[in-house]
Design goal:
Blueprint lengths: L1 E6 L7 H15 L3 E6 L11 H5 L10 H12 L2 E7 L7 H10 L6 E3 L5 E3 L6 E7 L4 H6 L3 H13 L6 E6 L7 H16 L2
Parallel strand pairs: 1-2, 1-3, 3-6, 6-7
Antiparallel strand pairs: 4-5
Helix pairs in contact: 1-7
Length: 195
């Protein structure tokens, strides 16, 4: 399976970087082909441009620079994985911008003649999100856990009907020790083995 791996963390020595390595190892061991998008390394500009907004509902929506390349790669994959931290109750701005600029008309959805939206990533049959949180799960539950909803509900709508979306969250990372993080990395490895 061709898997598009979208990574959003600026630090090369972070727990998220370790997670990315474990994901890559697991996918390779399972025989998958990996296409890595490292948003920070690519210096992706998350801001939807004026031209992009003006042509948003035109056919085709005119994406600029990396957004156009990312859109092609998204359309070529069969599996999709996101790795990111939770900042201010959501994904980093660079990943939110990825959704704004790449997940537009003709890619993540299509419009019919009546203006109704239809899923357009139905070639993607599996997805996963590995997400880290500074706060503990109960406080995230109280806020509705926006990253979990983004991945398990919003993302799922665009994919093939019945496509599983695995969600692996590590909560309270500001208080974890190496034993807890190793246990989490083992869990990520197990999820990748069945991806």
């Amino acid at each position: 399976m061709r898997v598009l791996l979208i990574y959003a963390h600026p630090l090369s020595d972070s727990l998220n970087a370790e997670i990315k390595s474990v994901v890559e190892e697991g996918l390779t061991a399972a025989g998958h082909e990996i296409d890595l998008i490292d948003l920070y390394a690519d210096r992706f500009d998350p801001v939807l441009t004026q031209d992009e907004r003006q042509t948003y509902f035109e056919d085709p929506f005119q994406r600029e620079d990396l957004a156009a390349d990312y859109a092609k790669r998204l359309m070529a994959c069969e599996g999709l994985i996101f790795i990111f931290p939770t900042w201010s109750m959501g994904p980093p701005a660079i990943l939110k911008g990825f959704f704004d600029r790449v997940f537009g008309p003709g890619v993540s959805f299509r419009l019919d003649d009546k203006g109704n939206l239809h899923p357009n990533l139905i070639h993607i049959t599996k997805a996963a999100a590995i997400v880290t949180y500074g706060r503990e799960r109960p406080i995230l539950w109280w806020f509705g856990d926006p990253p979990r909803r983004l991945m398990k509900r919003w993302l799922k709508w665009f994919l093939a009907p019945g496509a599983p979306v695995y969600f692996v969250g590590l909560y309270g990372i500001h208080k974890i020790n190496r034993t807890v993080s190793k246990r989490f990395l083992n869990k990520v490895s197990r999820v990748m083995a069945k991806f």
